[in-house]
Structure formats: structure tokens, C-alpha cells
Amino acid sequence: MTALTWTDERVEQLKKLWEGGLSASQIAAELGNVTRNAVIGKVHRLGLSGRAKSPSSAAPRPRKARPAQHMMRVTRPVARGNTALAHVFEVEAEPDPVAFDNVVPMNQRLSLLELNEATCHWPVGDPSSPEFFFCGGKSLPGLPYCSHHSRIAYQPVGDRRRQQPKPTR
What we know:
This protein is mainly alpha-helical and 169 residues long. The chain is 31% helix and 2% strand.
């Protein structure tokens, strides 16, 4: 790559062409062996003022008058966050009569070793306590939780943001 040196003659020619209203591309073609970006860089380094706009471009274009139209805007549903599980909320799942308010029947409670893909993996209680168990209800297809616990685990983004932040001490 050859280094371009700006001679005094080339700088003077650049100034004349710039003041003459030529574009950087046109100046580069006129000078030869120089790029448009080199011309722009040199113009900035020389501190040449911006050129006066031609009278045709200085005046704003008149806008075409449009007939008054009453447009009705349709709001679209906002999808934010992880939408992979959004279809779960579109279908109204029948309420799970077994898992209501964390009251899980004794015969439904499972230990970690008893869990499988068809059972709800929702933990209940303190894991270090001997009374700790998993819900064990029928899980929704493709999810690890029953319908009740899925509604708790997968809250829409808007619902999470409406909750007040917990005070820190």
C-alpha cells in the first residue's frame, strides 16, 4: 500500500474543489490516487467549514397534503422475555383438584427417588427436614410440574414486574 502525501498543491486544489461544492467522491476522482474517505479526513483535519447548501436543497420540501383519514390502531400482544413456554398460558388448564394451596394428599407425596416424567417435581417444605416431599401430582406434557404449580413457576413477565420489591435490611 502506498502512503499518500498531501502536497501543498493538492491541499490547495482540495480546498478549491471543496469550496466549489464538489462532493468528497468527486474530489477524490479529480485528485486521483486518493479515496473518498481520505478526502473527508483531510477536510476535517484542515477544519474546512461545511459548505453552504444550494438554494434548492436549503429550502424544505413542501409536503403533499393528505386527505384526513381516521386510522384505527390495533394493539398487538407484547411478547417479552422467554416465550418458549408461552403456549402453556394460552390453554386454560383444568384446575388440579389434588394440588390446591399446597395441600397434597399423603398418598400423592413422593420422595426424590420416586419421581418420574409423569409426576410433579414441585418441592414442598424444607429439604433438610424429614417431612420434605415432592407434589407427585400428574405433570403437564413437557413440563416438570402439575397445572397448579406450573402457574406458580411460569408467571408472565407483566405479573412479575407488578409485584412490589421486598424491602432489604
